[in-house]
Amino acid sequence: MTGFRLTMATLAATALTLTAAPAVAAEAGITDEVTMTLGKDGTLHVVEKISGASGQLKRTLITRTRYDDGNDRLYRISNVKGGTLAGDVLTVTGQSVEYDVKGAVTTSGGVEELRWFAVSGWNTEVAKATVKVNGPGQVQNLSCFAGELTSAIGCTSASMDHSATQADFEQENIAQGQALTVVVGYPKGSSSGTPILEKRFSLAAAFTLNTVTGGALAGLLLLLLGGLGLLYWTRGRDARVAGHESGSVDPVQNGHFSPPDGVRPGQIGTLVDEQADVVDVTATIVDLAVRGYLRIDEQPRQTYDAPDWLLVRLPSAPVNALLPYELALYQAIFDGRDAVLLSQLSGSFASHLGKVRDALYADVVKQGWFARRPDTERTRWTTIGVILIGVGLVATVALAWFTTYGLLGLALVIAGGALAVGGQYMPAKTAKGSAALAHTMGFRDYLFSGELGEVPEQHRVELFSRYLPYAVIFDGVEHWSRVVASVTGNGHQSDNLYWYHGPAEWDLSKFAGSMRTFTTTTSGAISATRQFRTL
Question: Can you tell me where the transmembrane regions are (predicted)?
Fold first, then answer.
């Protein structure tokens, strides 16, 4: 008997242990009873009853999955009761929760397939889940998968009732973040539900090159670039003047210098390249010296000293006869002083250079060579081009994100870039300006032809000196400096010119090197100022 009792006790303990094990397992997670009903309109109504929860329950619903190579499938959740939905996170506030799902139905072959992640994304383990599915027709097939979202492992059980109108699924021990996916097939047309698809963004798809996009891109580029060409032809093209306008030029009248059309060096520089830049200012300084408004005194220096020049104001000069841009430069140089070293031209000189540039632009308009200020014209069209580039970039991003026509936005970017660059060529000369330019080019050819004609010896220094500022504009300083240094005013070699004085032991044989260094240094000093830094 004792042995029998011991055996029975052992069996009872074993049975108690076996019956207690499920209770322990149940306490390790929640129980989720899910009832799903598919309506005729394709909306899936879901009711979940949860038990065994020990804290706040949250569930991250799956609202997007991959459908095919180019699309994602969306599931839209609405009409939440018993909880709150923030984004795709559902927070349960009671013992049950219900909601509607749209997009859970799709047609596959001859079957209408319902697919939903009945249990997924809980922040705790699900010890046991049961799912009942009712639909608008008889069940044609069913399947279920448990584990990770892409798992192909079947659930614990899947069955249907004897009338094939209800499908039942069960699964135990679903870990956090894992899912129980149920799939039920109904006859095609049982509901009007359709999948909700959203095109997936990819650079390859966004910038698809095919017959349609390629043709549209080519057509748009042709239209835009053709329009820019027409714009330049009508607005930016100089009023052309026949080549014979240049003609023969003789700037010597009665032994005195007379430039074609009375054009001065700074005006020529702005007329030729349509910009008021450093070389125009440098040439004007030399021209003011040659014409007797100031004198340039080269300063003595040691071997390693930087070269420097003293600009001396001549009190007898008729300042009132200066053009506005010349007067602005003259005042910027001296600023109330009688003399100033070139190396000390800073401060007020830099601040006045903007006025010089503005006056030069205003002068070429006043002369009738341009209808509008060249700098304003360039800025306007370049700004429009930059704006068009910005619009094109926005259009490219929008078209690439929402369509496959991203290439069309690039056409606007290309056109904007062409306009931004082409804006530099938009200033157009008038007929008068084109004629003046033709005469100027004729003067340049004359200047470098070497045929200087018969110039009386007593006029050569003055005449050839008057050529020098124009040579600065035409980049011929070296040549004309040597010409000036080779002449005399009275038949004898001179140590200085009336407008340029060198230091002791300096003579005209060194003038060419001195002048080359002076123009280079002056241009460097001017270009270092803010107003001319970018020109």
Answer: 212-233, 381-401, 407-426
Name the CA radius of gyration of the chain, rounded: 45
CA-closest candidate to residue 465, choices 500, 429, 432 = 500
| Fold of the 30-200 domain | Immunoglobulin-like (2.60.40)
Q: Range(s) for CATH 2.60.40 in the chain? A: 30-200
For residue 82, the model assigns a pLDDT of 92
Give residues with Cβ within 8 angstroms of 438, minimum separation 6.
241, 243, 245, 246
Judged against a pLDDT cut of 50, whether residue 243 lies above it is answered with: no
Handedness of CA 386, 390, 396, 399 (dihedral sign): negative
pTM value is 0.59
Contacts of residue 300, defined as CB under 8 A and 6 or more positions apart, other chains included, come to: 503, 504
- CA-CA-CA-CA torsion sign (497, 498, 501, 506): positive
The one-letter code for the residue type at 370 is: F
Burial of 510 (0-12, 13-18, 19+ CB in 10 A): middle
CA-to-CA dists, residue 256 to 261, 439, 468, angstroms: 15, 18, 14
